Amino acid sequence: MHNAALGALGLNWRYLAFDVHPENLRTAIDAAKALQFIGLNLTVPHKVLAVEMMDELDEAARTWGAVNTVRFEARDAGGEWKPLAEFGDDVPAAIRSRGFNTDADAIIHALHADLDPQLLRGAGVLLLGAGGAGRVAALRLAAEGVGVLNLVNRTAQKTEKLAGEIRRRYPQLQVNIGYPKGSIDVVINATSLGLEPGDAMPLDESRFSLRQARAAYDMIYRPAETPFLKSAKAAGCLAANGLGMLLYQGAKAQELWTGQPAPIAVMRRALEANIYGH
Ligand code: NAP
To answer: What per-residue string of b and e applies to 31-54 under the rule 16 or more CB within 10 Å gives b?
Structure first.
Protein backbone atom coordinates (compact mmCIF):
# COMPACT_ATOMS: atom_id res chain seq x y z
CA MET A 1 0.00 0.00 0.00
CA HIS A 2 2.88 2.34 0.70
CA ASN A 3 4.64 1.82 -2.62
CA ALA A 4 1.31 2.23 -4.44
CA ALA A 5 0.76 5.50 -2.58
CA LEU A 6 4.28 6.74 -3.34
CA GLY A 7 3.71 5.93 -7.02
CA ALA A 8 0.40 7.80 -7.03
CA LEU A 9 2.09 10.82 -5.44
CA GLY A 10 4.89 10.71 -8.04
CA LEU A 11 7.58 10.27 -5.38
CA ASN A 12 10.77 8.44 -6.26
CA TRP A 13 10.89 6.71 -2.85
CA ARG A 14 10.68 3.05 -1.89
CA TYR A 15 9.09 1.36 1.13
CA LEU A 16 11.07 -1.74 2.11
CA ALA A 17 10.69 -4.37 4.84
CA PHE A 18 13.64 -5.35 7.05
CA ASP A 19 13.79 -8.05 9.72
CA VAL A 20 15.59 -6.62 12.75
CA HIS A 21 16.33 -8.51 15.96
CA PRO A 22 15.17 -6.52 19.01
CA GLU A 23 18.76 -6.29 20.31
CA ASN A 24 19.75 -4.53 17.07
CA LEU A 25 16.86 -2.07 17.03
CA ARG A 26 18.84 0.95 18.23
CA THR A 27 21.57 0.29 15.66
CA ALA A 28 18.98 -0.11 12.91
CA ILE A 29 17.27 3.19 13.79
CA ASP A 30 20.64 5.00 13.94
CA ALA A 31 21.58 3.49 10.59
CA ALA A 32 18.32 4.63 8.98
CA LYS A 33 18.99 8.11 10.35
CA ALA A 34 22.57 8.16 8.98
CA LEU A 35 21.30 6.89 5.63
CA GLN A 36 18.83 9.80 5.54
CA PHE A 37 15.76 7.57 5.41
CA ILE A 38 12.54 9.58 5.34
CA GLY A 39 11.03 7.44 8.05
CA LEU A 40 10.20 4.00 9.39
CA ASN A 41 7.32 1.85 10.50
CA LEU A 42 7.91 -0.49 13.41
CA THR A 43 5.97 -3.58 14.33
CA VAL A 44 5.84 -6.00 17.28
CA PRO A 45 7.97 -6.18 19.43
CA HIS A 46 9.70 -2.96 18.39
CA LYS A 47 6.82 -0.56 19.03
CA VAL A 48 7.31 -0.43 22.79
CA LEU A 49 11.11 -0.82 22.76
CA ALA A 50 11.51 2.17 20.42
CA VAL A 51 9.84 4.62 22.82
CA GLU A 52 13.13 4.96 24.73
CA MET A 53 15.16 5.28 21.54
CA MET A 54 13.50 8.31 19.95
CA ASP A 55 15.09 11.78 20.08
CA GLU A 56 11.59 13.25 20.28
CA LEU A 57 8.14 11.80 20.89
CA ASP A 58 4.86 12.97 19.47
CA GLU A 59 2.02 13.28 21.99
CA ALA A 60 0.21 10.14 20.78
CA ALA A 61 3.36 8.00 21.11
CA ARG A 62 3.85 9.31 24.65
CA THR A 63 0.20 8.82 25.56
CA TRP A 64 -0.09 5.25 24.22
CA GLY A 65 3.45 4.18 25.14
CA ALA A 66 4.25 2.79 21.69
CA VAL A 67 5.86 4.03 18.47
CA ASN A 68 4.75 2.56 15.14
CA THR A 69 5.93 5.42 12.90
CA VAL A 70 9.24 7.26 12.91
CA ARG A 71 9.91 10.44 10.98
CA PHE A 72 13.44 11.74 10.51
CA GLU A 73 13.79 15.51 10.74
CA ALA A 74 16.47 18.19 10.30
CA ARG A 75 16.66 21.91 11.09
CA ASP A 76 15.80 24.36 8.30
CA ALA A 77 17.54 27.73 7.81
CA GLY A 78 15.28 29.25 10.49
CA GLY A 79 16.30 26.55 13.00
CA GLU A 80 12.94 24.73 12.88
CA TRP A 81 12.79 20.90 12.77
CA LYS A 82 11.22 19.78 9.48
CA PRO A 83 10.64 16.35 7.83
CA LEU A 84 13.57 15.24 5.66
CA ALA A 85 11.15 15.18 2.70
CA GLU A 86 11.38 18.99 2.67
CA PHE A 87 15.16 19.14 2.16
CA GLY A 88 15.60 17.48 -1.26
CA ASP A 89 19.27 16.53 -1.82
CA ASP A 90 20.52 19.09 0.68
CA VAL A 91 20.07 17.33 4.03
CA PRO A 92 21.95 18.80 7.02
CA ALA A 93 24.19 16.42 9.02
CA ALA A 94 22.25 16.76 12.27
CA ILE A 95 19.12 14.59 12.01
CA ARG A 96 16.69 13.65 14.77
CA SER A 97 14.17 10.85 15.03
CA ARG A 98 10.62 11.64 16.06
CA GLY A 99 8.31 8.83 17.16
CA PHE A 100 4.59 8.81 16.41
CA ASN A 101 1.73 6.42 17.06
CA THR A 102 -0.79 6.15 14.23
CA ASP A 103 -2.31 2.84 15.43
CA ALA A 104 -4.49 4.18 18.20
CA ASP A 105 -6.42 6.71 16.09
CA ALA A 106 -6.70 4.15 13.29
CA ILE A 107 -8.78 1.88 15.54
CA ILE A 108 -11.32 4.64 16.14
CA HIS A 109 -11.25 5.72 12.50
CA ALA A 110 -11.90 2.15 11.32
CA LEU A 111 -14.76 1.55 13.78
CA HIS A 112 -16.44 4.75 12.65
CA ALA A 113 -15.76 4.39 8.92
CA ASP A 114 -16.44 0.65 8.60
CA LEU A 115 -19.27 0.19 11.13
CA ASP A 116 -21.10 3.37 12.14
CA PRO A 117 -19.90 7.00 12.45
CA GLN A 118 -21.99 7.34 15.66
CA LEU A 119 -20.85 4.04 17.17
CA LEU A 120 -18.67 5.02 20.09
CA ARG A 121 -19.90 8.05 22.04
CA GLY A 122 -21.39 6.73 25.28
CA ALA A 123 -21.27 3.19 23.86
CA GLY A 124 -21.20 -0.14 25.66
CA VAL A 125 -18.11 -2.01 24.44
CA LEU A 126 -16.89 -5.57 24.97
CA LEU A 127 -13.18 -5.84 24.22
CA LEU A 128 -11.70 -9.33 23.83
CA GLY A 129 -7.93 -9.43 24.33
CA ALA A 130 -5.46 -7.40 26.37
CA GLY A 131 -2.24 -7.87 24.41
CA GLY A 132 -0.45 -4.99 22.66
CA ALA A 133 -3.34 -4.11 20.34
CA GLY A 134 -6.02 -4.72 22.98
CA ARG A 135 -4.30 -2.47 25.50
CA VAL A 136 -3.98 0.47 23.10
CA ALA A 137 -7.56 -0.06 21.88
CA ALA A 138 -8.90 -0.03 25.45
CA LEU A 139 -7.08 3.18 26.36
CA ARG A 140 -7.98 4.91 23.11
CA LEU A 141 -11.66 3.87 23.44
CA ALA A 142 -11.63 5.29 26.96
CA ALA A 143 -10.24 8.56 25.61
CA GLU A 144 -12.96 8.58 22.94
CA GLY A 145 -15.67 8.75 25.59
CA VAL A 146 -17.29 5.31 25.43
CA GLY A 147 -19.80 4.73 28.24
CA VAL A 148 -18.89 1.27 29.56
CA LEU A 149 -15.87 -0.85 28.76
CA ASN A 150 -16.04 -4.59 29.47
CA LEU A 151 -12.69 -6.38 29.32
CA VAL A 152 -12.16 -10.11 28.74
CA ASN A 153 -8.78 -11.81 28.35
CA ARG A 154 -7.45 -15.35 28.78
CA THR A 155 -4.79 -14.16 31.24
CA ALA A 156 -6.78 -12.46 34.00
CA GLN A 157 -3.75 -10.60 35.41
CA LYS A 158 -3.44 -8.55 32.22
CA THR A 159 -7.12 -7.55 32.32
CA GLU A 160 -6.79 -6.44 35.94
CA LYS A 161 -3.66 -4.42 35.22
CA LEU A 162 -5.29 -2.79 32.20
CA ALA A 163 -8.52 -2.05 34.09
CA GLY A 164 -6.42 -0.41 36.83
CA GLU A 165 -4.57 1.73 34.29
CA ILE A 166 -7.84 2.84 32.65
CA ARG A 167 -9.46 3.67 36.01
CA ARG A 168 -6.44 5.81 36.93
CA ARG A 169 -6.35 7.67 33.62
CA TYR A 170 -10.10 7.87 32.90
CA PRO A 171 -11.84 7.83 36.31
CA GLN A 172 -15.21 8.79 34.81
CA LEU A 173 -15.40 5.62 32.70
CA GLN A 174 -17.08 2.47 33.96
CA VAL A 175 -14.70 -0.46 33.45
CA ASN A 176 -15.88 -4.02 34.12
CA ILE A 177 -13.95 -7.24 33.95
CA GLY A 178 -15.91 -10.08 32.33
CA TYR A 179 -18.87 -10.45 29.99
CA PRO A 180 -21.71 -7.91 30.14
CA LYS A 181 -25.21 -9.16 30.97
CA GLY A 182 -27.38 -6.98 28.70
CA SER A 183 -26.97 -5.62 25.20
CA ILE A 184 -23.93 -3.65 24.03
CA ASP A 185 -23.04 -1.52 21.02
CA VAL A 186 -19.89 -3.25 19.82
CA VAL A 187 -17.76 -6.31 20.52
CA ILE A 188 -14.13 -6.13 19.35
CA ASN A 189 -11.81 -9.07 18.87
CA ALA A 190 -8.26 -8.01 19.73
CA THR A 191 -7.03 -11.55 20.37
CA SER A 192 -5.11 -13.57 17.82
CA LEU A 193 -7.82 -16.26 17.83
CA GLY A 194 -9.10 -16.62 14.27
CA LEU A 195 -5.74 -16.16 12.55
CA GLU A 196 -5.31 -19.94 12.16
CA PRO A 197 -7.86 -22.40 10.80
CA GLY A 198 -9.36 -24.40 13.67
CA ASP A 199 -8.77 -21.66 16.28
CA ALA A 200 -11.34 -21.50 19.06
CA MET A 201 -13.80 -18.58 19.12
CA PRO A 202 -12.38 -15.55 20.97
CA LEU A 203 -15.44 -15.40 23.23
CA ASP A 204 -17.36 -17.85 25.41
CA GLU A 205 -20.74 -18.05 23.69
CA SER A 206 -22.32 -19.71 26.71
CA ARG A 207 -21.66 -16.47 28.61
CA PHE A 208 -22.18 -13.89 25.88
CA SER A 209 -24.34 -14.25 22.78
CA LEU A 210 -23.42 -12.21 19.71
CA ARG A 211 -27.15 -11.36 19.53
CA GLN A 212 -26.44 -9.05 22.48
CA ALA A 213 -24.18 -6.89 20.26
CA ARG A 214 -25.23 -4.37 17.62
CA ALA A 215 -21.85 -4.44 15.87
CA ALA A 216 -18.73 -6.61 15.77
CA TYR A 217 -15.19 -5.74 14.75
CA ASP A 218 -12.37 -8.23 14.25
CA MET A 219 -8.85 -6.76 14.21
CA ILE A 220 -7.85 -9.78 12.12
CA TYR A 221 -8.00 -9.11 8.36
CA ARG A 222 -6.53 -12.38 7.09
CA PRO A 223 -8.68 -14.47 6.75
CA ALA A 224 -11.16 -11.84 5.58
CA GLU A 225 -13.96 -13.55 7.50
CA THR A 226 -13.06 -15.30 10.75
CA PRO A 227 -15.57 -17.64 12.46
CA PHE A 228 -16.16 -14.75 14.91
CA LEU A 229 -17.21 -12.40 12.09
CA LYS A 230 -19.26 -15.10 10.39
CA SER A 231 -21.18 -15.76 13.63
CA ALA A 232 -21.59 -12.02 14.22
CA LYS A 233 -23.14 -11.57 10.77
CA ALA A 234 -25.43 -14.58 11.36
CA ALA A 235 -26.51 -12.95 14.63
CA GLY A 236 -27.48 -9.79 12.72
CA CYS A 237 -24.51 -7.59 13.79
CA LEU A 238 -22.95 -4.91 11.63
CA ALA A 239 -19.52 -6.44 11.00
CA ALA A 240 -16.09 -5.46 9.69
CA ASN A 241 -12.61 -6.95 9.67
CA GLY A 242 -9.30 -5.28 10.59
CA LEU A 243 -8.26 -4.14 7.11
CA GLY A 244 -9.39 -0.58 7.85
CA MET A 245 -7.13 -0.39 10.91
CA LEU A 246 -4.15 -1.42 8.83
CA LEU A 247 -5.10 1.04 6.08
CA TYR A 248 -5.67 4.07 8.31
CA GLN A 249 -2.49 3.67 10.37
CA GLY A 250 -0.57 3.45 7.09
CA ALA A 251 -2.34 6.44 5.55
CA LYS A 252 -1.52 8.60 8.58
CA ALA A 253 2.12 7.48 8.45
CA GLN A 254 2.29 8.44 4.76
CA GLU A 255 0.95 11.89 5.58
CA LEU A 256 3.55 12.35 8.31
CA TRP A 257 6.36 11.43 5.91
CA THR A 258 5.18 13.21 2.75
CA GLY A 259 3.22 16.16 4.14
CA GLN A 260 0.52 15.39 1.55
CA PRO A 261 -2.95 13.81 1.87
CA ALA A 262 -2.64 10.03 1.50
CA PRO A 263 -4.26 8.52 -1.61
CA ILE A 264 -6.57 6.29 0.45
CA ALA A 265 -8.39 4.60 -2.44
CA VAL A 266 -5.08 3.66 -4.08
CA MET A 267 -3.78 2.30 -0.79
CA ARG A 268 -6.95 0.28 -0.13
CA ARG A 269 -6.85 -1.24 -3.62
CA ALA A 270 -3.19 -2.20 -3.20
CA LEU A 271 -3.89 -3.79 0.20
CA GLU A 272 -6.84 -5.77 -1.10
CA ALA A 273 -4.90 -6.96 -4.15
CA ASN A 274 -1.96 -7.97 -1.97
CA ILE A 275 -3.90 -9.61 0.84
CA TYR A 276 -6.94 -11.07 -0.92
CA GLY A 277 -5.65 -11.30 -4.49
CA HIS A 278 -8.51 -9.29 -6.03
P1 NAP B 1 -0.42 -9.95 21.38
O2 NAP B 1 0.15 -8.80 22.11
O3 NAP B 1 0.38 -11.19 21.19
O4 NAP B 1 -1.80 -10.36 22.13
C5 NAP B 1 -2.49 -11.53 21.78
C6 NAP B 1 -3.86 -11.55 22.45
O7 NAP B 1 -4.55 -12.74 22.04
C8 NAP B 1 -3.77 -11.60 23.97
O9 NAP B 1 -4.90 -11.00 24.51
C10 NAP B 1 -3.80 -13.12 24.22
O11 NAP B 1 -4.24 -13.49 25.50
C12 NAP B 1 -4.81 -13.55 23.18
N13 NAP B 1 -4.66 -14.97 22.84
C14 NAP B 1 -3.66 -15.52 22.11
N15 NAP B 1 -3.84 -16.84 22.01
C16 NAP B 1 -4.96 -17.14 22.72
C17 NAP B 1 -5.67 -18.34 23.00
N18 NAP B 1 -5.24 -19.53 22.54
N19 NAP B 1 -6.80 -18.27 23.75
C20 NAP B 1 -7.24 -17.07 24.23
N21 NAP B 1 -6.61 -15.90 23.99
C22 NAP B 1 -5.48 -15.94 23.25
O23 NAP B 1 -0.91 -9.54 19.91
P24 NAP B 1 -1.43 -8.11 19.43
O25 NAP B 1 -0.36 -7.39 18.77
O26 NAP B 1 -2.18 -7.49 20.55
O27 NAP B 1 -2.46 -8.56 18.28
C28 NAP B 1 -3.73 -9.09 18.60
C29 NAP B 1 -4.54 -9.33 17.32
O30 NAP B 1 -4.79 -8.08 16.68
C31 NAP B 1 -3.82 -10.20 16.29
O32 NAP B 1 -4.78 -11.03 15.67
C33 NAP B 1 -3.27 -9.22 15.29
O34 NAP B 1 -3.18 -9.80 14.01
C35 NAP B 1 -4.37 -8.14 15.33
N36 NAP B 1 -3.87 -6.80 14.94
C37 NAP B 1 -4.40 -6.23 13.84
C38 NAP B 1 -3.97 -4.99 13.42
C39 NAP B 1 -4.57 -4.36 12.20
O40 NAP B 1 -3.99 -3.42 11.66
N41 NAP B 1 -5.72 -4.80 11.74
C42 NAP B 1 -2.99 -4.30 14.17
C43 NAP B 1 -2.48 -4.91 15.31
C44 NAP B 1 -2.92 -6.17 15.68
P45 NAP B 1 -3.16 -13.65 26.71
O46 NAP B 1 -2.94 -12.26 27.23
O47 NAP B 1 -3.87 -14.53 27.67
O48 NAP B 1 -1.93 -14.26 26.13
So the answer is: ebbeeebbbbbbeeebbebbbebb
Residues 6 and 125 in one domain: no
Closest atom of ligand 1 to CA, residue 242: 41
Statement to judge: residues 112 and 235 lie in one domain: yes
Query: How far, in Å, are 109, 251, 269 from residue 266 at the CA level?
Result: 18, 10, 5
Residues 68 and 162 in one domain: no
Determine if ligand 1 sits within 6 Å of the CB of residue 245: yes
Of all protein residues, whose CA lies closest to atom 44 belonging to ligand 1?
Answer: 133
Q: Give the pairing type, strands 56-57 and 174-177.
A: unpaired
* 75 phi/psi in degrees, rounded to 5: -85, 135
Residues carrying an active site annotation:
47
By alpha-carbon position, which residue is closest to atom 31 of ligand 1? 192
- Pocket of ligand 1 contains residue 132 by CB under 6 Å: yes
129 Cβ closer than 6 Å to some ligand 1 atom = yes
CA 49 to chain centre: 16
Print pLDDT tens along the chain (278 aa): 999 999 999 999 999 999 999 999 999 999 999 999 999 999 989 999 999 999 999 999 999 999 999 999 999 999 999 999 999 889 999 999 999 999 999 999 999 999 999 999 999 999 999 999 999 999 999 999 999 999 999 999 999 999 999 999 999 999 999 999 999 999 999 999 999 999 999 999 999 999 999 999 999 999 999 999 999 999 999 999 999 999 999 999 999 999 999 999 999 999 999 999 98
Ligand 1 atom with the smallest distance to the CA of 154 is 47
For residue 194, give the ligand 1 atom closest to its CA.
32
Residue 163, domain extent: 105-241
Q: Is 111 in the pocket of ligand 1 (CB under 6 A)?
A: no
Same domain, 198 and 152: yes
Our answer on whether the CB atom of 191 is closer than 6 Å to any ligand 1 atom is yes
Number of domains in the chain: 2
Residues 266, 234: one domain?
A: no
